[in-house]
Amino acid sequence: MEVLRSVIVVVHLIGFAMILGPLALAALHKRYEFDTTAQVGLVVALITGVFLSGPWGDFDPNYPKIGTKLILLVILGGLLGMGAAKAKRTGEPVPAGLFWAAVAVAVGACGVAVIW
Fold it and tell me: What residue intervals traverse the membrane (predicted)?
């Protein structure tokens, strides 16, 4: 059972890498856009997070952490969805404030996952 939990943790971290990777690449090139890879990574992180939130042997669920991460992922999903929809509708890049807000929320969610 511990091996399965470890595999799910790795896939969860891959989901966060799928979120942060395209955002970091867009920031590096100063092209503020939301790649669909970030949206898929959000779904991967959400699904694996739901699996990880259940009781696993000796691990007791940390409900405040689960709630905080869920709130951050919902906010991040809203930011990614709004930015992608606006960019698709207008053909212009995502506004810089919206882009950096998404980066801050994604980094915050990673920080909660690792530090808490």
Answer: 6-28, 40-57, 63-85, 97-115
